[in-house]
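Changelog-linked ticket: magnesium ion example.
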Amino acid sequence: MKKFVYSFNEGSKEMKNLLGGKGANLAEMTKIGLPVPFGFTVSTEACTDYYDQGGALSDDIIKQIDEKLVEIEKVMGKKFGDTKDPLLVSVRSGARISMPGMMDTILNLGLNDEAEKGLAALTGNERFAADSFRRFIQMFASVVMGIEMKRFDEVFEKIKEKAGAKFDVDLTADDLHEVIVEYKKIVKYGEEGGFPAEPRDQLLEAVKAVFRSWNNDRAILYRKLNKIPDEYGTAVNVQSMVFGNMGETSGTGVAFTRSPVNGENKIFGEFLVNAQGEDVVAGIRTPKPIEEMKTSFPEVYDDFMNIAEVLEKHYKDMQDMEFTVERNKLYMLQTRVGKRTSAAAIKIAVDMVNEALIDKETAVMRIDPEQIDQLLHPAFDEKAEKSAKVIASGLPASPGAAGGKVYFTANDAEVAAEKGEAVILVREETSPEDLAGMVAAQGILTARGGMTSHAAVVARGMGKCCVAGCSDIVVSEKEKTMKVGDLTYVEGDSISINGVNGNVYEGLIETVTPELSGDFGTIMSWADGIRTLKVRTNADQPQDARQAIEFGAEGIGLCRTEHMFFEEERIPAIRRMIVAENEDERRAALSALLPFQKEDFKGIYEAMESRPVTIRLLDPPLHEFLPKTDEETRALSEQIGVPYEKLVQATTDLHEFNPMLGHRGCRLAVTYPEIAEMQTQAILEAAIEVKTEKGYDIIPEIMIPLTGIDKEMEYVKNIVVEVAEKVKKEYDSDIKYLVGTMIEVPRAALTADEVAKSAEFFSFGTNDLTQMTFGFSRDDTGQIIKTYIEKGIFKEDIFQSLDQTGVGKLVEMAATLGRHERSNIKLGICGEHGGDPNSIEFCHRIGLNYVSCSPYRVPVARLAAAQAAIINKEK
Ligand code: ADP
Ligand code: MG
Ligand code: MG
């Protein structure tokens, strides 16, 4: 018989895939002798089996659960349903990767009429036992049986009213028994198909409910967002209960071994006296900082600090722990690697190397490249922030700065964001149901909950700005308002929030780019020492280029020349060129453009000094430069002195059904060689002049776009070489230059060896290559791609992460063919994918020389390239 169920003393942290993260870590803590209430884990394979059986527990699984129940009863010396000392358990879901959206933990399972008596006898507290029972019925009914919570609330309120009770705690044991009688009716207690009175039946139902919750909408959404395969399944942990709510010597809490906010090496957490379960996380009462345990529970505090240290040393990473104190005895209920902000991730990684806990490669692997993106994003301008009106202040739960219009439900936030609005999601508190709204929002503001509340944890994970527990504000989801004192803000009003100081401001505040910490530089320098892939940037303007250099760019992989044409002074010249009737007119218009282009290139070369720069010849269809409206056409006619009718005619002539597949790229150079001639002249003259003036070592790389045919490449290259040689002669310069192409038409990839006869470098333009390989227009098919992802046809957006199976095959093939023909051919990628960590790993694997991405992605790419080197070394 296959083993499906494991006691906590049969597992270890290496068994995550089988036991889930929570189960594996409970087993590990048991193994190293920490105080963990005994229990067992029903494995993820049992979850798969459950689905294979069409949604049922097989006899084998049930048999093994029964055996383990006997074992817990023996170890704990308690029995299910006992009237003196009943065994109660929690049922907790736990996938390989911690995953919100799964079924909520059920506490106190095993309670029924007999066990309630037992609990009362054990604690000498009848009221406590009755309250636990009614809570359990409520919880089980809602999470396992799907009965609406509202129905219980109604009963509860009615009885409270009848008893004249103001608060829940004013209810007596007798009142609570009345509640239980009513609750039992709602849940059909003990009846066929109703609430199971037998603890064993309760348990089996709960296990099935956890397995079912693997496929609820929230869980599916979370998996999609985080790219977790649906096949993984979840495990179920069944653990004997300990009670944090047994009075003033008991309590419950959560803590991190270091600050998840800024990484400071100091315990960070919160606890509540006389409380159970999720009270801390749910923000029901405002918890106390963990340090206060030192006074209220001095011995337990020392124990806890000790265990925290043991766990961190054992796991060699920052831990996020959950614990409960029952009558002055400490129990560990969970440990896992703690989520953290990117700033904290960097500080912790660097500190741990300095503490000799981990090596540099491990440190580099610990930083999520996507996450460091947030460090590079703007904060509020200090002055503007000072003069802004602070309307409230809450906890600085997740750093960053955000402004936008307020929306009060996740759904409204999503709808507004889809319309392109910047949104601040304002909630009393968030729950996993709000996930999609949190994703859509720029920032999140909650009225309740602490630093470890749902909103705080999830926002930090997403790298999204969040202010939590802002008790100054009163949020009404129904009225869609937020009140602060006598001010009222309605849906659509603008506010700004600062996740670093917790302030909430009226209106929008100007933002600035932050300075990077020394630790960031340290991690980056370690990454640079490890990676072999070079990182360039896509930049058209000197100021972008300078920004990219600050972020560590080693060159420009793609400088587009068309953006330069759109500037006000230049566009008339390019338009004159387009409507020219013959070559002479065209040449005249182009020569007016030459000085502009040359100045632009000089600016780029000056910014880049001796770093390599690839400049691409004109690429877009010409009609993109023509006026769009009748009004503009008339104005242009005046401005350049070309009759209106002629302009209209030119626009009509240039109209294309499929401009993306039309008169663009190198086809422009083939039909109008004088364009390529002018651009080549501008590039060479700029390079020679800057080289002479500044002494930089410049080797221009001239890139011909959209080639698909070797003859085409050869034709345009000849034009370029002819002009380049002429300029060299005029300047009496021996400057070297390279002529290469962008590989973006599938045919070019398929015949790359032939193309490489004249191309001295390839740069993979994977945006177009993806578009043409799939036949998916990148400008029109956004909605289709979204649907494809929803239906599971695509795992992710093919324009964000390279399709390694199809498009990647072309890239790899072209790289191999290219190198075969020309062994020293330079290979790079300049599509959107050049900044995507998975795609970067692919580029490393197939041996490209560099990736090129937008300036802000450069640090992401440097880190991802280092990780690619580490991963592939291990392989
Ligand atoms: P989550 O994954 O949402 O953190 P957990 O399974 O960790 O859910 O359960 C949440 C909380 O429930 C725990 O932090 C703990 O306080 C409480 N809990 C779970 N199991 C037990 C138990 N055996 N005894 C006492 N409290 C428990
Ligand atoms: Mg939970
Ligand atoms: Mg937990």
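Closing comment: Example verified and attached. Residues 104-105, 278 surround magnesium ion (ligand 2) (CB under 6 Å). The chain has a mean pLDDT of 92.
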